[in-house]
């Protein structure tokens, strides 16, 4: 359930972009009507309208995510607050400057923030972030927890670079596809590979 909630803003971004891309004149007039007061020059053209409308949707969806969690009395993860801050700042710049470059940086910055938090937590504060999240679900030797933690650091670092490569070397529509399907697909592959690696340790049972 949580992973579906986490990917919901991305899915809505994808849906709005694809719809607007197929209806560019509608997208341009709608974006100008809704966002004209926020954009430089006051007019949104057909080329940039799809990504601008999708950006508005992802900002609103992230806000809605937090409000829904708050309404249910659930804790809002720190990374969700960071995501809201990034999507609001970079999305706002995308809207104002009519430039998709800003919003394209958002996944990379978020990946690197998450990876950096795990890295500095392990090296500076001697706290294993992955063990803190998953320690109640499995019992592993500390050296294995360190391997798991650093593997996530590496994964987030690579994903950040990969996002930039796709974002600035391919059409925006390709990046939008990668943002949803590529990001989710690679995450699933990574998690499955890690599960295979950890399986032999889990079978050993609790460690002394």
TrEMBL record:
It is found in: Cell inner membrane. It is a multi-pass membrane protein. It comes from the Bacteria. Keywords: Cell inner membrane, Cell membrane, Membrane, Transmembrane, Transmembrane helix. The chain crosses the membrane at residues 46-68, 80-97, 109-126, 147-168, 180-198. It holds the Pfam family IspA. InterPro entries: YciB (IPR006008). PANTHER family: INNER MEMBRANE-SPANNING PROTEIN YCIB (PTHR36917:SF1), INTRACELLULAR SEPTATION PROTEIN A-RELATED (PTHR36917). Plays a role in cell envelope biogenesis, maintenance of cell envelope integrity and membrane homeostasis. Belongs to the YciB family. This is Inner membrane-spanning protein YciB. It comes from Polaromonas aquatica.
